Amino acid sequence: MRRADRLFSLIQALRGGRLRTASWLAEQLEVSTRTIYRDIADLQANGTPIDGERGIGYLLRGDFFLPPLALTGPEHEALRWGLALVSAHGDETLGLAAREVLVKLGVHQAPFHAPPTLTPQDRHMLKAVREGLAAQQRLHLAYKDLGEAPSERSVRPLGMEHWGKVWTLTAWCELRGDFRVFRIDRIVNCALGTHFGHEAGKRLEDYLAQLRAKTDNATPQNK
Questions:
Q1: Is the pLDDT of residue 85 over 70?
Q2: Domain check: are 141 and 205 in the same one?
Q3: In this prediction, what percent of the chain has a pLDDT beyond 90?
Q4: Which of 104, 106, 105, 86 shows the shortest CA–CA distance to 96?
Q5: In the chain, count of helices (H) and strands (E)?
Q6: FRET partner for 46 with CA separation of 20 to 30 A, picked from 30, 90, 186, 210?
């Protein structure tokens, strides 16, 4: 990481008026505590209002923030609601990231309560599925259907859907040779597998086209 980028990230980590220890900052930026001490000293020497000292911690004083985003009222509200929903219904990593964004942007929590619906196991599986989807890696699933029948599957993750109380995974199932939708809360175990490429007939757009065709065929035609 370039030093300028590291200093910017250091200031970002100190935002929100919270005391941060040098060891915590070093872990976040993946550098040594000695580097943090040196960077803090350089920022202070250049007028950045950072209070604190070694062995106690540091915080950014006052309103030393980047210029606020020019958000409209509805945009600001959408941001608050979206981050609140991610915090409540995302996995642990995304939930923490959403809460950090709220603090860094100085955005208050949305004016509604979104109770979490995921168990710790669900959050763990959600994270594993999300990582496989992002990296375009096959997932090896131990799965139980609604009738509690177990099965082992190797799938290509294509998309994730949130239905209010449950998350689902749309995937190409290597075992069935077809598209399948799995409930995240029915996944017993999930392991990342090999990388896969886009292949005609096995992509998300192919699945959506298949659904549209079924809908069109089921709709009576006006004559």
A1: yes
A2: yes
A3: 47
A4: 86
A5: 7, 7
A6: 30
Q: What token pair was written down for 201?
A: 């007939």
Q: What is the pLDDT of residue 75?
A: 79
Distance CA 191, CA 142 (A): 9
Question: Which candidate, 146, 95, 142, places its Cα nearest to that of 120?
Answer: 95
Which residues constitute the domain of residue 51? 3-60
> Are 195 and 167 contained in the same domain?
yes
Is residue 223 a part of any domain in this protein?
no
The vertex-143 CA angle with 138 and 144, nearest 5°, equals 160
Question: CA-CA distances (angstroms) from residue 104 to 24, 97, 124?
Answer: 17, 10, 26
In the predicted model, is pLDDT for residue 56 greater than 70? yes
Q: Read off the pTM.
A: 0.63
User: Is 12 inside a domain boundary?
Assistant: yes
CA atoms within 13 A on the CB side of 218: 6
Instruction: List the alpha helices (DSSP H) in 148-220.
Output: 204-218
